[in-house]
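Reminder to self: tokens first, then the designed residues, so the page reads top to bottom the way the pipeline ran.
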């Protein structure tokens, strides 16, 4: 059963939107707001959510507090948010993988964020990073591709979570460059990073924030990023697309969604206030310092972007045979 089996229970929300939704939205929020995160405390999504919560708390004069509900590929947190009253006082901090990969990979996945939730707005994107141990002596993605081709079947790349964007990017690179290398899937960055620095894997692909410490410390060499253009604070690092043009972008990203049935006036106010917060120079700087980049979007623009991302990754998922598994 997906969330919309609760349609009859949420019918009152439509009445609220029709009768008093606009007036209610003008006074929103008049109490603390909960922001649900589908990962554990301290992970990159949690860090991003807490920055957003702090900004919205200042904007609203009401506390926005983060609650962590990890597990079951994000479905636990999605259920917590999706079954909450649709009054704007519970919001979901959603990850790109739950929009893009999980609906394709997990047959019978119980939630569809586009179908079951109300779109609020885009928060930020985090480009994927392709990095190798500094000791390997490789400086570019083209050099790494040549290294793999000289060692067919002998090269391993550490990636995070089966079906996550890092894993899909590794598979896409293999497809485009026609490489015989193996993706080794790790449950978290520390284990994958340890094996890469220890020589058990030859490269690692993860979100740039997760690898920045090892890169800045000189242990890893960043050879490519998954952004559409070179990053403003790392202009020396080429994009993946500069070497493999078919790979237009490979990004982790975050968006705010509301429970199904949330009245449109409330959703519109939250969206507008979120864009005000994200447009603040000091917040943009905080995000950039952790390799995250804001892209304010309206709810309509967000939905269009989600569909673009889904279409971008569908061929990769199908090609590597993960659909429905």
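Designed residues (325 positions):
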């Amino acid at each position: 059963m997906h969330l919309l089996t609760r349609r009859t229970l949420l019918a009152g929300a439509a009445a609220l939107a029709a009768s008093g939704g606009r007036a209610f939205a003008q006074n929103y929020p008049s109490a603390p707001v909960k922001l649900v995160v589908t990962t554990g405390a301290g992970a990159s999504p949690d860090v991003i959510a807490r920055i957003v919560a702090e900004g919205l708390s200042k904007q609203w004069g009401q506390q926005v507090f983060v609650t962590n509900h990890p597990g079951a590929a994000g479905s636990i947190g999605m259920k917590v948010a999706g079954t909450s009253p649709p009054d704007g006082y519970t919001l979901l901090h959603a990850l790109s993988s739950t929009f893009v990969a999980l609906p394709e990979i997990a047959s019978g996945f119980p939630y569809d964020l586009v179908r079951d939730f109300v779109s609020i707005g885009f928060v930020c994107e985090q480009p994927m990073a392709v990095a190798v141990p500094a000791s390997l002596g490789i400086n570019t993605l083209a050099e790494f591709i040549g290294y793999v081709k000289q060692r067919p079947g002998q090269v391993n790349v550490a990636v995070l979570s089966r079906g996550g964007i890092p894993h899909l990017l590794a598979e896409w690179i293999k497809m485009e460059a026609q490489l015989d290398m193996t993706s080794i899937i790790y449950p978290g960055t520390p284990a994958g990073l340890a094996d890469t620095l220890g020589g058990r894997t030859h490269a690692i692909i993860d979100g740039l924030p997760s690898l920045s410490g090892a890169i800045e410390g000189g242990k890893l060499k960043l050879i490519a990023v998954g952004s559409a253009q070179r990053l403003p604070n790392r202009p020396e690092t080429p994009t993946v697309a500069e070497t493999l043009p078919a790979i237009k972008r490979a990004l982790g990203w975050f968006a705010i969604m509301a429970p199904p049935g949330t009245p449109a006036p409330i959703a519109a106010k939250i969206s507008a206030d979120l864009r005000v917060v994200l447009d603040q120079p000091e917040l943009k700087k905080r995000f950039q310092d952790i390799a995250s980049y804001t892209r304010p979007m309206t709810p309509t623009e967000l939905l269009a972007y989600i569909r673009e991302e889904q279409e971008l990754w569908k061929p990769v998922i199908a090609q590597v045979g993960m659909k429905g598994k």
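DSSP finds 15 helices and ten strands in the chain.
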